Every structure is written in C-alpha cells, then in structure tokens.
## 1
Amino acid sequence: MTRRLLTLLAGALFFALLPLFATFFGEPYLISLFTRILIYALAAVSLDLLLGYGGLISLGHAAYLGIGAYVVGILHQHQSEGMPLLSWPILVQGSDNALLVWPAAVLVAAFFALAIGALCLRTRGMHFIMITLAFAQMLYFFFLSLEKYGGDDGLSLYARNRLPGIDLGDSLHFYYVCLALLALFLLLAIRLSRSRFGLVLQGARENDRRAKMLGINTYWYKLACFVLAGGGAGLAGALLANQTEFVSPGLLHWTMSGELMVMVLLGGLGSLYGPVAGAAVFLLLEEGLAMYTEHWMVYMGPILVLVVIFAKRGLFGAIAGTARAE
Amino acid sequence: MLLLFEQFLNGLQFGITLFLLSAGLTLVFGIMQVINLAHGSFYMIGAYVGAAVTAATGSFLLGLLAALPAAGLFGMAVEWLVLRHLYQRDHLDQVLATFGLIMFCNELVRIIWGRQPLFMDVPPWLAGNVEIVDGLLYPVYRLAVIATGLAVALLLWFLFTRTRLGMQIRAGASNREMVAALGVDISLLYTLVFGLGALLAGLAGVMAGPILAVESGMGESILILTFVVIVIGGIGSIKGAVIGALLVGLVDTLGRAFLPVLFRLLFASATADAAAASLSSMAIYILMATVLIWRPRGLCPVQSA
C-alpha cells in the first residue's frame, strides 16, 4: 500500500509542478503537450471504467469524445453567427460560456451513450465489440457528411470558451483547469468503484449469471457504467476542442477508439490511475518516435504486440506493485 | 428499370467482395474464438502484392498467383507469431495486439510502396463491356468478379460439407477439446484455417485492385463493413456470411444510388442532398441495428458452447 501511495503522490506532484519546470527550463511547449496528455488521460480513465470494471470491451469510445467536441464546436459556431441552434420547441442559442457548454457536452455525450448502450448491451462478447465499433463508425460518417458544420474539413473555433475568472486562452490556466477536472473525475471514479455500484459491476464482470441469480439486474448497472463513461469522454472531447480550437470527424474515427484502448492497457487495466500513466507514455512515445522517423507506427505496432503478450499488469501495476484493483 | 438492374449487379459484386472477406473472418471467430482486426491487412497485402507483380510482369494472372500465397503465408505467420499466444486470453488482448499489427502493416506498405496509391489496370482480356440485356452494357471485369466469388462460395461449401478437412473444421468449431482428444492436430488445423481465411481476403484484395485505389489503410474501411456482415449473419456461420454480405452489399449500393433520387422527390433539393448523403452512408449500420433488435445473435446463429 505504501508503494502504491508513493507512486500516486509522485504522480500527482509531477503533474502539479510540471508547468513550473517547463517555464523554468524555457520549454513552454511542454505545457501544451501535457495538457493534451491530461485530456486523453480523462478519456482513457472513462474507458477504463468500461473495460476494467465492467469488462465491457467497447471499441467505439471515440464517438463520445467526438460528440463532446462537436457540442463545443457547434454551439460556438452558432454563437459567432448569432443564429439560434434551435428555435422550436424551445429556443436554444449558441454559446461559448464554458459553464453552459461543457455540461451540455457531457449531457449530450451521455445521452448518446444511453441510446447506443441500451442497444449494444443486449449482446455480449465479440458481438458487443463489433457493434460498439459499428455505431461509432455510423456517427463518424454522420459528422463526415454534415456539411453545415464543416463536413470532412472540420470546424474551426475562433477562440476558446469563456470561464468567469479564468482565462482559458492562457495555456497555464487551461492546464490547471484540465488537471482539476481530471482529478475530480478520478475521485468520482474511485469512489464509485468502491461503492456497491462498483462491486456489482465487478461481480457481473467475473460471473454475470451468478450476479443475476443473486437477484441483481446487471443490465442497468452496465448501462449506468456505459453512460458514465460516455459522459467522461464527452467532457474530454469538450476540453480537446478547446485545446486545439478545432473539431473534425477524425476524432470519432475508430483508430482513436483503438488508441484510447491502448492507453488503458499500457497503464494497467482496471487501475483507474494507470490510464493516466498510459496516456502519458503513449503520447510521449508517439512524440519521441515521430522526432526520429515519420514511420513511427512501424515501431509502435510491434511494441504494442509485445506489451500485450508479455506485460499483463501494465505500467501502473509494474511500478505501484498492484495488479488490477480488486 | 435498367438502372436498377445495373445497380443491383454492382451491389452483388460488392457483396461478393465482402463475402470473400467475411468467410475467412467468421471462421476464425467461430472456430478459434479470436477477434482479429488485422484481417483487413491481409486484404491490403493481397492488393499491394497483386498490383506490384502485375505492374512488374504485365500479367494480371501472375499478379493474382503471387498475391494469393503472399496473403495466405502472411496470415499463417501472423497466427504463428502473435495470435497463437492469445487464444486463451480475453478478447481485449486480442483486439489490442491485432490493432498493433494494423499499425505495423499500414506503415510497412507506406515504407515499401510510398504514400501514393497504386492503380491497377483491368487486364485486356477482361476489359470492355458486354450487353447483358437490351441496352445495358456491363463491364466484363465486374461480371468476372461475381463469377469468381460464386465459384469460391461453391468450393467452400464443398470443402466444408464433403471433405475430411471440412469435417474436422466443423467439429473444431463445436467442441475443440473433443476434436483434439480424437487425435486431430488442432494447432495445425487452426493455422490452416487462418491461412485459408487470409488467402480469401487476399483474393478479395486483388480483385478489388482494378476497381478501387490500392492504398495504405484500405483494409480498415472494408474490415468494419465485414464486421457488420458477420454481426448480421451470425458469428461463425458461412451461410450467415453469404446472406449478410449480399444484404450489406445491396443495401449500401442501392442506398447510395437511389436515396438521393427518392429524397429529391420528397424534399427541397438542398436539404434532400444533405439528408440523403448522410442517410445512405449510415444505411447499413441502421440495417445492423434493426437486425440486432430483432435477433441479437444474428440471422443464422451458430449454437456453440
């Protein structure tokens, strides 16, 4: 437990002090790189709830990331054009107020997760993987052909969202906002994983039939997990849209879902903290390899295969000395 | 009416290509319980080797003859090096390892053949059009693709129902321990089935070469359609793969051809075009969702332990 605690403290300290070092050593681009890492970490943690706790292998998690990003993009476009998004039955204006837009992104992503999850959870195993993938591709093609909002060119934002008292356009402010949101989501996820809800999910993962025999309708627990994970990814999408000030259908592409999965596995399945490390390693490895060769994927691929075959506990398990949280 | 018939043939041809891919994949799913995302890479490698050899020798037949063993052997190598270690693991590990393989393969063909897509010409002896019914000219090459696909389907049916190997494969699908206990070398059987699946994917790749551009990543867009086919048909069922592939091929092709016309009759042109474009690209996924609500295990579910 102490080794685990030490690892966590070191990690938290590292992320809290990173901007200080980056400024001190005159490498400000590190702040934006690590902001990206924090955002992907948020998405990866939300996916870990599904993969690690629910045992639900969704290969379509990028869809909710993309939906969150598009909510920001679309509301921003309507705000700058001064046209309402919806005039009937209720008037919905565009907005760039983060306090409105981000919760909207979470809610819309969670709503889509509810609809898609309700259907997908009728199936299990291999069917589930392929169906979540297919639904994500469906949304990908939907946004690809959505000419009103940029189609395959994507949608540019003129500025980041506004948050009272904080300047999101400033990279330092934005970094700490992302860090705080990631910490909050982690806390929520950890609390939930130790609650009755988390225990039921893990029970259903190990033996769904037995959980049902105990009188628990596991379907609703899994659906709740799916919706929660979708909402988390939607928040990450909203942050990502703000960071890059650009939204494109590429965010929903299935390779993005695959990359998020890789982050979870690299970090350690079912450890919740692990995916944060996984996201950092994946993006740093990508950045590092890309510096030496444009063909970085030809190295990344075999590395991934080796990690899958040989390193079952993931990075967090190896350092903190604990396997998946039980 | 003529247009409908022509689009119907196009859909049939697309469906046949999908069938060649899904036949191999559904076997691997059904028999080995392994999810293999890298199946699209076999298709891509078939197409690249076919295009390269055809360009070098000038003969489409030589290209075809080189591509089939290339894809098959590559598939067997993948099974032997990677997937064999993952049979006993979760689906998650299989998804991730084969995702790594896709990254590797896509980048490898970019290194070998460059970023520009390759183009393959239709061989001269299959070029030109033929008049099927009055006033409908249809490319000979596409008819040849349809004929090849039907021949392969027959051959597979024969292999599975009338030969010893087919019997062992079917037995392996329903109870692998029992088959192994009866003295069948199950790991050799798996490698063979995997190679056969890869070879069929390679065949689909070469045949698609003259119709589509041969480029890195071409395997994935079709892989996802193949998944849709298998989910609709039922995992592990060849019959399901035939039905699913034809359904998906026809719905996709006819949707793209006729939805815009249909919508323009109903709505103003600007909204009609936009709505038709997005609906036709989503049509097969809507089809899949409908099938799943109705039958969660696909149209031809395979009973297995």
## 2
Amino acid sequence: MNRREALSRVAVLVGGSIVGAEFFLSGCKPGDKAAAGLPLSAEDMAYLDEIAETILPATSTPGAKDAKVGAFMNTMVTDCYEEKDQKIFLEGMGKLNAACSKMHGHDFMKATPEHRKELLTALDKEAKDYQKSKKPEDPAHYFSLMKQLTLLGFFTSEVGATKALRYIAVPGKYEGCIPYKKGDKAWAT
Amino acid sequence: MPSDTTSSVNINAKGLEQNSFDAIVIGSGMSGGWAAKELCEKGLKTLVLERGRNVEHKKDYPTTLMDPWDFKHRNNLTSELKKENPIASRCYAFEEASQQFFVKDKEHPYIQEKPFDWLRGYQVGGKSLMWARATQRWSRFEFEGPARDGYAVEWPIGYNDLAPWYSHVEIFAGISGNKDGLETLPDGEFLPAWEMNCPEKHIAEKINSQYKGRTVIQGRCAHLTQPKQIHLDQGRGQCQARSICHRGCAFGGYFSANSSTLPWAMKTGNMTLRPHSVVHSIIYDEKKQKAVGVRVIDANTKEATEYYAKVIFLNAACLNSNLILLNSTSNRFPNGLGNDSGILGKYIAFHEYRGNVNATIEGFEDKYDYGRKPTAAMMPNFRNVYKQEMDFLRGYMVHYSAGRSNWQQGYDMDGIGEDYKNKISEAGQWNVYMMMQGETIPQEKNHVRLSKDQKDDWGIPLLITSIGYSDNDDKMVKDFLEQGSEMLEKAGCKNINALDNGRVPGNDIHEMGGVRMGKDPKTSLLNKWNQMHHCENVFVTDGASMTSVGNQNPSLTFMALTARAVDYAVGEMKKGNL
C-alpha cells in the first residue's frame, strides 16, 4: 500500500522530497491487468466486510463495516494492486475460509464473533511470523494485505477519520506544543 | 530570418502589428510569472506564452477542498497510472489529488543517456503550483564559492547585488521566517515564522548547544502566516495549515504564479496570456543583430505563428530554456542562440537528496501538535563554509521534522479487535525524519543536447539528458549520513536508521545551469544582468542561468534574479539601448 496520505501527518515537504518518505513507501506497484475474479461480487464484499469488522469492530465508535471497507478493498485490489498481489489476495479469501473450517468446522460467515476473532488472531500471528522470516522479494502474506487495506479503508473513511479519530479539514493555524493525554484520539491527517 | 525546417506563417502588415508586443515572456511559472508582473507594472505590453493549458487560481483546483474519503483510491495511485508514469510517479508530490498538474511520461518523451527524472508541469503557473515552498536567500558563501574553490566560473554578481531584490520579491510573495542573524543564511523580509513542535525544538537545542557552527532554525517558506495588505490586495488569505498545497490552495495561502504574480500582471491591462503556445525557437535577425520575436506552434492545431517584441524573457524552466535556445539556430548562431562559446546546455547541476536519516524520540508522550505545518526545521550548510576542509567540495543544508504516528502504526503492530483498534486510534510514537539538500558541482559532461533524428509532436527535437552523479556527491552523502546520525544520537533519538535512498538526478526538481551567467563571454552565456552576451535583448532568468547551485532551495533566487533583470532591461529600453 502506498501510504502517502498518512505521511502528511508525520513528514513534511521541503523541496524535491518528503522527509523520510522512503521509510514508509512500499507496495502498490504497477500491474498488467486485473486478475480473473475481479471486480469482486457483492457476496465477496460482504465477506470482506466481516473480516474487516473483526479486525476493526464497531465499539463506542463505528467499525469497518460502517466504512464499507469490503467495497473499498475491491476498489483497491482491482485498481491499485499488481497482478501478483491480486492473486495472493483472491487466493487468500479462500485460504481464510478453509482455515476457519479447519479451526471451527464451518465457514467464516457462519462463525460467531468469538470464533472469527480467534481465527484472525491466529492468522495475524501466522502473517507476522512469516513477515519476519521472509526475504524482501518473497510474496506478501494474504492476511497482511487484508489487514493493511482494512486500516487504510477505515481510517481514511469519513466515519473512521471523524469518529474513531479527530479530523480537521481546515485547522486555520499551527500550534507546535499542545498537551496530550493517554486515550486522546490521534489526528486523522 | 533564419533558415528553418518549420514554415513560418505569412505575416501581413496588420498581422505584424497584431502580433507585436513590447515584451515576450516564454513560460508562466515561478520566474515567468515574476517577469510578467514586473514588465506589466512598468507599462510594457507583454505577451506571456505558456505551452500548457490555463489554470485559473481557485477555479481550476478541483481537489483543493476534497477530504481523504472523497478520493476513490484515498489519494493512492492506481497501478495503471504508475505503470504509465514511472518517471512522474517517483515524484513525492504526484498523487491522486495532484496528478493533473504533472506532465505524463508518454505525452512528452525525452531521451535519457543516464537516468534522469525530468519532472514538469505544463500549465499556466508551471511548477509554482506544486513546489515545496521552502525559500532561503543565498549567502555570500554560495556566490563566492566558485571563485574561491575554482570548481566553476566566477559569479558575476555577489550577495549585495541581489539582496535588495530578495527583499522586493519576499515582500510581495510573503515569506515566513525568523530573523536568525546567520551569516550562512541571511535574514529577509519576513512574516511570522512557523513554530517548531516539542521534539523539533528539543533536537534543535541539543544540536545548537553541542556543535559550534551548526544552527538549527525554523524553515522559511512562502506561506502567508499573517497576510499584509499587499497580499490581501492579491486576493490571498492566511495559510490555514492544511498542508495539501500541491493541489493548489483555495485560500491562496502559499505563493504561486497563479495566485499572485499572474493575476497582478493581468490587472495592469498590459498582459496577454496565451496558453497552448509551444515555443519552437527565438527568431534572430542578422541585420538588426538581435532577436525580433518568437516562433510558436499551437499545441492543439500545430499551426505556426510568429510573435514579435523588443525584449524577450526566457523562463521556460531550466531544461526547456536550454532546449529552446539550442533549437534557435540561424546562420549567425548555428549551434543555438548566443552559443559562440559552445557551452550552451553544459554544466547542468542539481541538488543531492540521496541521504535520509530516520529515528524515534522518547519523552514527549504528553505532547502533541495542532494543525499541519507546511514546512520543516532546517540547518544551513556547515561544511567548507569559511575554507575548504572536507574531502569533498561544497556542502549541504539539512532539513528535519518530527511527527507522531497515527493509525498507520497499526501496520506493524500485532493484534486485531477492540483493544487493537483503540490503541491505534491514539497518537503513537514520535518519529524524526532528516534529509540532506546538497550542492552538486557543475561539470561540463553533465549536459543536455538535441536529438538529431527524433522530434516531438510539434516538430521540435527531443531533448537528450546526460546528467549523473560524481564522486564528490558520493562523499557528501556519506558525510551527511554520518553527521545526521550523530546529531540525532546526541539529541537523544533512538532507532536511528541512515540510508542512501538511491534516487536519480532530476527527482530533486532542482536542475539548474546550461545557460550560465559569468563575466567572460568565452565561458558563459549571460552577463551579470541575465542578459545574453551575444544577443542583448534576450534575458534568461530561470534556473538555466545559474552558475552554481548552492544548497538552498532555489526558487526565491530565480524570482529575485528575474525582478532585477527586468528592472535593468526596462532601464536599457528607456535609454534606447535595447
């Protein structure tokens, strides 16, 4: 995922460069054409909505489903992913369901919220372990892609940016040092 | 009239009159806008030629008021856009929100003999729409450098020649900054400075107290922190700290030709702005021994037209100004206008941005900032200032900023569910980013020239770029990476990571030279007034004119050189010398 938008919060443009851009930029490389299976069906997007909601559930603030993250994933995977990542993502949708059957004996869509969380916690660990050991040129883990898109889709959505975070389109001024206490929401941009 | 492959239109007496102006400005960007404003204010009927479309302030900034969720891809590039634009998409400012202002790779090809990212903005306002807005005066050390160290021809002007013109452009453009009293970075006419955030201030204090000759200051930039009447008169307002500037600013908070110089010139009634006008060449009259006009190809119809004027300002941006001169051939100047010395297109230099240092800093968990500051802290060059002391020539400016990570911290954090969501919705650690902006040495071999067999859609030869790094650049990067890491360590930073990002020349968007100023017509093309030694009614006042490149962000210097050159040119016209 290209994280330029997020960068604006922590890096500053000073001429020919974002300070530290390379620290963040990765992924979202050019592809030839959409892999078979894209764009996704409404059913697929509903499935992704549930995965995203398990990662970022509605709490005292809205969750991933409120931000229509499933539909956003479809857009991003179709338009911004290169073909090899499209394949990993699409195959991952099947793998996730298979892992759910193995763990809980039924499809993800039929699983309880507790079972979903248990599964995705295990997959998160699996992806993290894989990420640590993989070489840079090795393919990404499908769950890493899903998690990344969930975060991007949610926190840059209107409900995510304005309800889960604080968003001010026109700050009007800059103050360098203001107090912050634990629990305060971060700025969205 | 020169012999040329492009057929000129038949001009009858009426056409000649209709196509005649006092002055022609080629290019409407950073320096062209200034030429237009100054010429029009002095009463000259001025034609401004722009090869791209018109972009009107506010009206033509389609994304300026859009929120992140208004973008289909949340401001990410599609794989198709990236694939079709490997050059443009490497630019930090090329986004879903701003890509409409960048030249697409396929539209305007060029030939890279060595890797060179040529980033361009073909529209009214040029790159002044998307620039990074950091504005520092040169000091005497940059002007004196070439003569002292012998790495380039001597500058024909010094700091004192340009100082009043820096003031002139700063007052109008609106530059924020502190009066820091540094010999290496002279003060100017400033609006209130931006404020450092807590870690930035802490790092500044640590560096300033532990190093002699190194002083961190708040960066100076072309933002209206507190507009004055002259800015309100331009229809501009206070910067709103949104920091999405390269989309064009609905508030006119930063300086651009579109928001400032061009509407000002238009208001005089003396400016004719002609978009979609690709300049083919400058027309040289051998009897009159001067330039008489400009040959223009309409970008859409491909029709050729000639326009005439007493004086011509060339502000097409560095490499295109080189291209136009190289393509302006005649019996008198078979190798390009004014090019008796044979050095036209040579000694191109740029800024070195290959070094980055990233780190984290602890101890400010109870601090945050409000708003989005559109600039960074900076430290003027501290290498080889008073004498040559390193194993490389010249030096570099350092920029850094600090910011608290937000939701993106979740990318590398374990977990899912409610606790995870709550945690990444809070402000994370403070990150520090430092970068260099180094001076590169003008070398004869770093050059541009015209293709002999390939032309663009307008019948103009393609440009060949042959521009690369040198051993000096490598040594400078190494020094910055060591010094940057050491400074951040002494400031108490952790997880320090220094890297050579490997970017290619051109990606800095600070290319300069090729039509350099100098004292001697044998080794330079322009005199101390940016006037061609051998074609006195042609002035080149954009980056092409630079004898050396300094370590400061260059636009402010182009603006000041332009205003100064116009003042001289109009004076000479009044005296009957042009």
